Structures are given as structure tokens and as C-alpha cells.
């Protein structure tokens, strides 16, 4: 039982790294099996792959905005390239 919960937590961390909900995939892995949860998460695209090329995410509020703007219309923060590169790394 301990190993089952540990593997479900690993699936949750893997989902979080892909931009998915860690707690949701942790619960799904506990209910089903961690193997099935891992396979589903591995097949899901990461959230960065879902953003079209003409758009990017604001490093402060994480809203999707047009790539050519200088100030985020949602959070009113600076959209500099250094912040986006640092956030992605």
C-alpha cells in the first residue's frame, strides 16, 4: 500500500512538470493504478505545447497573450524576453 501511494505521488509530480494538475493525477493513480496514470500523463501534451506560436504566457499571471506586446493586458506587468526565458528554464 505504501509503494502504491509513493508511485501515485511520482505520477503527480510527473504531471506537474508537464503543467497538469498534480493532485488530480495523484488521485486518479491511487484509484486506478500508478501505471495507468503514468501512461495517460505521458500521452498528454504539456501546457507549453498547447500555446500557439503567435502567443506566449505572461511570466507573472500565466495568462496567454499575444507575442508582440510589451505589457500584459491582464496583470499589467512587463513582458521582457529575459523573464520569459528565465521562467521557462
Task: List the keywords.
single chain, 89 residues, mainly alpha, 2 domains, two-stranded antiparallel sheet, 4 helices, 2 strands, 49% helix, 7% strand
- The backbone outline, from C-alpha atoms, is elongated
Distance between the termini: 35 Å
Read across the widest sheet, the strand sequence of neighbours is 1-2
Count of all domains: 2
Q: Major sheet: size, sense and barrel closure?
A: 2 strands, antiparallel
The count of helical stretches stands at 4
E-strand count: 2
How much of the polypeptide forms β-strand, as a percent range? 5-15%
Class by SSE composition: mainly alpha
* Computed CA radius of gyration, to the nearest angstrom: 17 Å
Write the H/E string, N to C.
Answer: HHHEEH
Instruction: Compute the average pLDDT.
Output: 81
Low-confidence stretches: 83-89
Approximately how much helix is present in the residues?
A: 40-55%
Characterization of this structure:
The protein has about 90 residues and is mostly helical. The chain folds into two domains: about 1-45; about 50-89, no CATH class. The protein has four helices and two strands; from the N terminus they run H-H-H-E-E-H. The protein has a two-stranded antiparallel ribbon. Strand 1 and strand 2 (about 65) form a beta hairpin. Helix 1 (about 1-15) runs antiparallel to helix 2. The longest helix is centred in the first third of the chain and has 16 residues, at about 1-15. The radius of gyration is 17 Å and the shape is elongated. Residues about 85-89 have low confidence and may be disordered.
